[in-house]
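Now for a chain:

_____
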Amino acid sequence: MTETEMKEKRPLRIDDTGFGSVRILQDPETFCYGVDAVLLAGFAAARLKGRSRPSRLCDLGTGNGIVPLILSHKTHIGDMWGVEVQEEVWRLAVKNVELNDLEDRLHFLHANVRDIRTRPVECQSPAGQPVFPAELGGPGSFDAVTMNPPYTAAGSGLPAGNEARTIARHEVAGSLEDFLRAASALLKDKGHLFIVHRPSRLIDLCELCRRLRLEPGEIVFVSGKPMEKPNIVLMHCVRNGNRGLRILPEMHVREPDGSFSHEMLKLYERETPVRDAASAMRKDREGPPLRSENDIPAAGGKPGAEAECKDSVK
């Protein structure tokens, strides 16, 4: 049996996301989404709701499509796209559209972010012509872009356990600059970019964003619990936006007693504080509380479903 045939026969798992009726197919052997993707979707949704309704959004490095799937529940955006370089993971995203009957709103493209370079002043192909996947509709055609790019710079860190994790974690198929160039090409003037990354890359983020006319406007640091060092940063940029950076109050995922924080409950549309997070989530068939920053806070068709994933890379 070939490697491809083995992958096709590998069992997939259907999980409830905890967002309305949205479900997701995941491969426990290679790819499960993490809390960073949930935070990114919530961060973007909260800011897009308060503005004139955006009509088009693109998620770069979409993985199995979790961010657009959550946004399909949290927003009324009618045309959402996801771009994914890994064919096997992209196929999962396409299946997730069908699973949730969202063919009229969600579309996924198998492509590398390096192929999305359309603004001639900023970047051209070797032949001197702009490069752009025709499916996405042309340069400057999106109101918003979200991205959860690989966190580890090329040549840094230890290699991951398999190719899927390596591509998701390390900048081997696209650097941070590649992702940001793609976002700049996709966005309309005054369009909105939402990023999740590691605080250790914050200087790189700010420097690259400003160079590519993506002006940082808001930053939120996220920690596991109060008083712990932040391990996630959320950033909101505007293409050709006004200068002026706001550092918003830090948020945390859990309280000292292990219950979900008010911010996380609000993100999951549950306003009442819960001391025993595990019991509360099980009532909604959403799994136990986080065990690490990469676990899924509320996912699973059965209690503890996310624990079966060997690694959560998004």
Q: What stands out?
A: The domain at 32-253 is CATH 3.40.50.150 (Rossmann fold). The chain has one domain: 32-253.
